[in-house]
Amino acid sequence: MSAPATVRDAQPRDVPAIVEIHNAQGVAGTASYRREPSTLAGRLGWLASQVEAGLPVLVACADERVVGFASFGPFRDEEGYDRTVEHSVYVAAGWEHRGLGRALMSELIRRARRQTVHAMVGVIDADNESSRRFHRELGFVEQGQFTELGHKFGRWLDVVYCVKLLDEAAAPGDEPGHSVPPVPRLAEHPQAGDLAAKEVLSWELFGRAQRELAAQIAASGFRPEIIVAVARGGLIPAGALSYALDVKLSDAMNVEFYTGVGITLPDPVLLAPLLDTGSMAGKRLLVVDDVVDTGRTMQLVMRQLRGFGAKVRSAVLYAKPTTVVLPDYLWRRTDRWIVFPWSALPPVSTPSA
């Protein structure tokens, strides 16, 4: 399972770790075409200029240390590129393949959408297949490969440009004074606030999300033998992943924690009927839920299943900043109220006799 980690804005105290990671993972190889090592003074100035310009620098922290960072900045200086950014992401040696890069990029993409960025561009060394695959799994599309565009270590290097168009960013013509189609209305809880301020997952977007999540799982090499849904929210995502990963065995664990909007029991509680755990020792299980909010439900389920001797990993569509656990596989991070397509409409009422 991935080490518990948090993603937050970088502070000046984080710069020594950023310098160390960039020099080891970037300058020492071809993840960066910079030849001279970064310096503490240079990176402090860079962080200050990023903050002044309102551009994000994020760090991933685990075991009380910075183990990764990500940022974006202008793609080109001309005004016509003002809604296009170029990003970078680095993870410290020994911390790869634990979901930290995805956590950093998910938050970076969310920040880009908030700033109405239309396109994110990654510039990758053509021989860096790991980074190319990582970006493809995040929805980036390789738009072109350029021969001998860079030079380092005495040889010419080919470069790949990959681009992700951010579907939630406003399209050209959405400036003030232009007509923009209204956000479709969905039934919602009266305490949930305005729909425009929420994270809205449509059925179409869910179809893309579950395929991207399945691609993450497949790329990691983990092959679940049984998929376990955390009912009720995890039932539909678990079913979709069972088809996407071709896993025929599935089950569910019923857990109650939230009893209303923002109202919880003191602790999550397992409800009957209980999972048949007799044959799970040594099995590879994938636990699926729609969201980890506090993360305490997922924590309970994972602890229970590991107690029966199963090899367990977790997959979740959304994670909130308040979660105490970081899922092994995650599609998106958000701090917004989430509207899921399966719970957006009120229950179908039974006519009175």
Features:
353 residues, 26% helix, 6-stranded mixed sheet, Aminopeptidase
Question: Sheet bearing the most strands, described?
Answer: 7 strands, mixed
Helix content: 25-40%
DSSP strand count: 15
Give me the Rg, rounded. 22 Å
- Approximate strand percentage: 25-35%
- Which architecture of the largest domain per CATH? 3-Layer(aba) Sandwich
Low-pLDDT stretches are 168-193, 259-265
Structural class: alpha/beta
Global morphology: globular
Tell me the span between the first and last alpha carbons.
52 Å
Rounded average pLDDT:
83
Number of helical elements: 7
Q: What is the succession of H and E elements?
A: EHHEEEHEHEEEHEHEEEHEEE
Within the largest sheet, what's the order of strands? 1-2-3-4-5-7-6
**How many domains would you count in the coordinates?**
2
Determine the CATH superfamily of the largest domain.
Gcn5-related N-acetyltransferase (GNAT)
CATH class of the largest domain: Alpha Beta
Classify the fold: give the CATH topology of the largest domain: Aminopeptidase
Descriptive report:
The protein has about 350 residues and is of the alpha/beta class. It folds into two domains: about 5-165, Aminopeptidase; about 195-340, Rossmann fold (3-Layer(aba) Sandwich). The protein contains seven helices and 15 strands. It has a seven-stranded mixed β-sheet with strand order 1-2-3-4-5-7-6, with helices on both faces. It has a six-stranded mixed β-sheet with strand order 11-10-9-12-13-14, with helices on both faces. Helix 1 crosses helix 2 and helix 5 crosses helix 6. The longest helix has 18 residues, at about 205-220. The radius of gyration is 22 Å and the shape is globular. The N and C termini lie far apart (about 50 Å). Residues about 170-195 and about 260-265 have low confidence and may be disordered.
